[in-house]
Amino acid sequence: MKNPLESIDEYDTIVLGYPNWWGTMPMVCYTFLESYDFTGKRIIPFCTNEGSGMGSSVRFIKKLCPGATVEDGTPIHGAEAAYADSEAREIAELAK
Ligand SMILES: Cc1cc2nc3c(=O)[nH]c(=O)nc-3n(C[C@H](O)[C@H](O)[C@H](O)COP(=O)(O)O)c2cc1C
Fold first, then answer.
1. Does 23 sit in the ligand 1 pocket, CB within 6 Å?
2. In what helix (H) or strand (E) does residue 33 lie, and over which residues does it extend?
3. Do 93 and 86 form a contact (C-beta atoms < 8 A)?
4. How far apart are CA 40 and CA 30, in angstroms?
5. What is the average pLDDT score of the chain?
6. What is d(CA 16, CA 27) in angstroms, rounded to the nearest whole number?
7. How far is the CA of 9 from the centre of ligand 1 (A)?
8. 26 lines ligand 1 (CB under 6 A)
9. Probe ligand 1: pick from 18, 20, 57, max atoms within 8 Å of CB?
10. Quick one: which of 79, 16, 84 has its CA closest to 51?
């Protein structure tokens, strides 16, 4: 991980975005989720993809962060990510 945070204590809600790679999230996301204690935190995942949606990523996030509230996640079609305004608004609304 580049520039890892010393702590995530000051955050209650974490918006976690990543591309779908091989049906799940990239390995660096696993490293990130294994590096901190997410107990009591809320995780809002979103995932760009070319057809697999969230894949099994949300299941793995829940497994890695059993003490966190993990939202269903927002899949975004990668090729249209630049135009995903409504999804971005939805995520911002959830994070409020
Ligand atoms: C190594 C690799 C594996 C991928 N596996 C999947 C996959 O299993 N399902 C899927 O829908 N898209 C898959 N994709 C497509 C990516 O999700 C898509 O390229 C990405 O969301 C768009 O973000 P980018 O502009 O950062 O590539 C894969 C892409 C790469 C490079």
1. yes
2. helix 27-35
3. no
4. 18
5. 96
6. 13
7. 31
8. no
9. 20
10. 79
Q: What is the mean pLDDT of residues 41-48?
A: 98
> How confident is the model over 11-40, as pLDDT tens digits?
999 999 999 999 999 999 999 999 999 999
Task: Please give the CATH superfamily to which domain 19-76 belongs.
Answer: Flavodoxin domain (3.40.50.360)
Ligand 1 atom 8, closest CA? 22
Identify the sign of the CA torsion 84, 92, 34, 39: negative
Arithmetic mean of pLDDT, 49-62: 98
pLDDT for res 1: 87
Instruction: Spell out the domain ranges in the chain.
Output: 19-76
